[in-house]
Amino acid sequence: MRKLAVDIGGTFTDVLLFDSNTKSTYSAKTLTTRPDLRQGLFTGIDQVLAQSKNGHLDASDKSIDVFIHGTTIATNAFLERKFGRCIALTTCGFEDVLEIGRHVRADLNDLFFTKKFHFGDHIQIRGVDERIDARGNVVIPLTEEALERSLNQIDLQKFDSIAVCLLNSYLNPEHELKAAKYFLSRNPNLFISCSYVVSPEPKEYERWATTAINALLQKECVRYIEDLQHTLVREWDCRALLFNQSTGGLLPAEPTKRIPVQLLLSGPTGGAQACQTIAQSLRIHNLVGIDMGGTSSDISIISDGELRRLDSRTFDDIPIRIPMIDIHTVGLGGGSIIQSSEADRILIGPASAGSQPGPICFNRGGQELTVTDLNLAAGRIDPKFYFNGQLALNKGAVIDRLQKMFPEENVSHAARKMLALVANKLATEIRRKLFEKGCDPRDFVLCSFGGAAGLHCCEAADELGIRQIIVPLNASVLSAYGILMGQLVFDKTVALASVDPRQLQNAFFHKLIKGVYRELKKEAESGGIKLLEGDVEVFFNIGYRKQSYLIPVRMAGKVLQRQYRNKDYLARRLIDEFTKLHRQSFGFTYDDNVGLQLVSAYCRFRGTHPGMSADSLPPMGSGDRKNGHGPLHRVKRPAFKAKRRRLVLEGASSLSASGPCFLEARNSTIYVSPRWHAQVDKDFVYLNRSGSAA
Amino acid sequence: MISRIDTEIIRNLLIAAAEEMAITVVRTSRSTTVRDLLDFSTAIFDSEGRNIAQAVRMPVHMNSMEPCLRHILKHHVNVRDLVPGDVIGTNDPYNGGQHLPDLLTFRPAFMGKKIIAFAGVLCHHVDIGGGAAGGYNAKATEIFHEGLRIPPVKLARFVTPEEISMRFITTNVREPEEYLGDFTAQLSAMDVAIRKIETIAMKYGKRRFVQAVDRICDQSSNEVRRILQALPDGKGRFLQQIDGDGLTDDEKTIIATVEKKGTRISVDLTECSRQSQGPVNATLSSTLSACYFAISSVVAPRVPVNAGAFSHFDVVTTRGSIVDCEPPAPVVSRMLVCHKVIMAIWGALAEIYPAMVPAAYYGSSYPYSHAFPIDRGVRVYFDSEVGGWGATAKNDGVSGLAAGFHNASNTPIEIVEAAYPIQFSCYELRKGSGGVGRYKGGDGIRRSWIVEADGAFNANMDGFKHGAYGLGGASSGEPARLYVERAGERIMLSSKLANFPIKKGDRITLETAGGGGWGE
Questions:
Q1: C-alpha angle with apex B217: B84 to B68, nearest 5 degrees?
Q2: DSSP β-bridge partners for residue A656
Q3: From the candidates B9, B384, B433, which should be mutated to test the interface with A, based on the most A CB atoms within 10 A?
């Protein structure tokens, strides 16, 4: 049985192959190729297959059983506006809601602001006479004549997709269903996105914008998925294609084609999932993951063993309201540019020098000081080791630049102080993210990965009061690893019309889960997947009456499906949990007479696929060390500077060292700052802080 | 002396604290006004009351919180009497507040026995009693008609409201549950910030904390001075009209004379009308916050806002005028005066720096409220709207976009319909309402709704007579209008209404103003 995980990112395509017979994994990293992503993908797959056969590629044994894919196809289509031609059908009188939006502007002082939801070229908005009220009752019935009138002079054959966006449809989908049927009867090739399916919750703008983006993405994503399906069958006789979703689960190709908007975070979610796997295998309850690359850093949070989720976020100022893993991206990476403003301030990022022209030290014409340059000037990067020693760095140019910027200061001192600012910025973002979740950073372990994180993790942890850091040694393909470890998840959000949970009996919960199960089961079976009725978790979105912000309260299927003597046991348990979380986050709770509202429930069922049996979990760490990259052994390098030691990790056995020192891993450096102690085993570097908190 | 890197770190931490306050308010508040319209602000002040960090919220509030806190510290509270957990609050325009619905709360942060900073939150509460729902009594002639006045007093300890004060307040407002809910959100937010500020001060020490705060303010002040030095000197004068004060249709005038000379900009508002009999008045602190926003958004939009950012601006007013009213003048429509002050200043600045200023925007927040009698009480639906943004020398104006000064959001239709006896019949752009020119002004908005119960309707709008001006020879936008359709008949309404009776089945339509155009 061979399972392949592929993460196609902006720069690199990571491929990870797991062979369940030999229990080994093989990895490859190739450059992403554009516009045809398949080239890079093929090279990567050939490489891992060759590794698995010890270099003897046997044409008869090229088969792959399961192909799991993390992709940026939706993200790129969105950013590059590679959209299909779309009609949005709204309730008559509300055609402009998508353009009006919510009024607010991110920059109060920008008098020349121009950006709003403007997809004018791609989307035609039509209103239709119909109305459902806020209790779900039909006020004006939707008729076929009304649909015909509103689509007057539109040739449906010329469109790719339809977004059906009607008011209050989250309470009663009757009209949206009817409209969908009508469109399909006129042109069966249309992709239809109904707002009650894509984002079944109140607030029309957020629901409709999400639905419209889904419809706009459909053409490009479906084409990509179908191409890939054909290629997989042809080349590797592979029929099981699964996609990593922003929700942090895997779905087969068919449902993915229906809701491609769920692919928007497909790639970065892999890193977050890998963090969760690491947290589970090391039995860490609270972990914050920081993936720092060249231009940005992604922060993800696992608290009480659960990856933290979001129910909406904005992409390019447009709200996308679907359940997703909460990944917070900060414009701070190795290439971030440092500016010393005339106003006596020092600003870092979000502008990045990227790889072209790159930092000053790359000698490729970069003129602006970057975080990487600072690390070089401060002696944290050894030019001999950067990028496995393949890139010669020009330290002199950096020193010259720093001297010009800070004539009154010692250059390496100035560089170190600015690095403290980098760590502080990182820490501030992590703290804010934890704050939003009602968490205290001191209860967390930091998981540092990505090329640049290791240089800053100790200092950032000091700022946060975090005392333990974990650096996975297969960090360079960690995202693909997370995707490989992904699980099949079928999910659905059910609107619950703000009922007071105090009135609910256990039977309500039992019925809710059964209903969702029945619905999702059909969908799963059509993709050859067995849905596990018992393996479900539900997030109840609940708040005090009249509060707009809802706290998601998680309950496991085991708890929800059991019978209890006490008829309102589940409701009571739910309310207790909510009250606890509210107090933890906001420092107070209301008494009983204020009342509660249960607005929606987000249900996630796990499924199984013949190729994904649980016993086939690959080992942590990269199996390719069997092929000569070998287990860790330690090489002590001559001291880089009198007091600083530099240790190179490329081999077996364990190692321990105290800061200040540097650990050179493949493709990244870890700076162990004073008071930190490093321990290395075959999979991780563990960093522990001694002494009192900073 | 503190380094500029440490200063930057402390600045980041303080801004994060202000933003965490804002998150807390959104998540715990209970009225649509605060949680959906986002009508609130959060900021942090030093021990003297200088603004040192704020969340990206409403300049109208933020610029006025500092004068309010300074006023309280000077006249009402002896700093030495304050102990940890004390919460001081006021809504009194004549004690540094804005108008009665806005409740300002402040809580000190301590290091040892010394106060090192204050956290502050301002929320627009959905009602504060008075002659019309929402406190929006367009026919008020004294502040006493506008609702309950809360002088600066202790209102809570930590996150627990003072029981007696709260009972006084909630007994006097139409929506006691929302009032208490949003007040609790204010307390919870300040609690979050105080813990954070105290941690920062502990880590860096009091001396370095104070040095950093000084340096943060100096940086903004120096940056503004540098910018002003580089700009040419000049002088402009501009006039704006207000439809009427709610009692009469006599127009009021706002005239701003703006002069840039060297490193200072001065605004002379002494030619403005005398204070109105009705509630179209602003206290000096409201007017100042409008002036500061108007100038800094044009000349120094990128400079971090804090006490230092405004130190190069001078404003002159006449006591007893519409921009510097005296008690007992009513003030609920102070925002309208502020909008007009901003546009008068922008118009004057456009005479000096034509390419740096957009044409006028809609110029009113269009606040309106409904009162629906329910069993033993009143249900209040308060809302506001925006219109078209002015065109610039580079682009058409954006349709339906909030001016940065109030940065108001809208309440989703599905949320309003679920909460109140209201059903909307349209929410759309008012096509063609923006001014014509080389660049078009943004369009206003049309929002129509049917009321499903008898009740009363209040409006404190403006710009029904004059549209938003165009610049460089372009035309102005369409003026706003408001009407009700009853039994097939359309009744045009005036911009200011108090307790206008509405009947089940009435359809009310608000058409907001378009922005001005730019260039011939």
A1: 50
A2: A679
A3: B9
